[in-house]
Amino acid sequence: MKMSSSDRAAGARMAPGSIVASGFLGDDSRPLADIIEADEEAFRALGLDFGLAAEGLGALLKEGEAGLGAELRHGKGLVLSSDEARGKAPCPWGDGLHHKGSVRIGLAGSADFLLVSELSLHLLREHHFCQGRGSPFRLEPSLVKRVLEA
Ligand SMILES: [Zn+2]
Prior knowledge:
Layout: H1 5-12, H2 32-46, H3 50-65, E1 72-74, E2 78-83, E3 88-90, E4 97-99, E5 102-107, E6 113-117, H4 118-127, H5 141-149
Antiparallel strand pairs: 1-2, 2-5, 3-4, 5-6
Helix pairs in contact: 3-4
This protein binds zinc ion.
Zinc ion binds next to α4.
């Protein structure tokens, strides 16, 4: 996939310490456009829709935040816990500011979990960007599916 100039600028802001300490790319060495293209293919193959996935995870984010740090069960399959962080972080594409607070969505009986924040869900919905492999906030498509179906 060809990189647009806005993708190039966004990619530069994804380095560790530019917007968030851990950055957005983890140890993924693929170009931004390739990461997005591969995850779009994975979403298609799994029958997932970016908008619906962001909506479903957004509902869990809100539910987890209401626990104010305490662990909450969501049905039988999920354990939610919030991590309050003050302030806002900008989208690397420069189209908005998002609260930094995050919620850990754990699959019960498993070590697997997703970390979601307003920003990570914005990246998912608007930019189809699940973040790089190794990024703490990566929304691995197969794990997104397991969480939404738990
Ligand atoms: Zn954006």
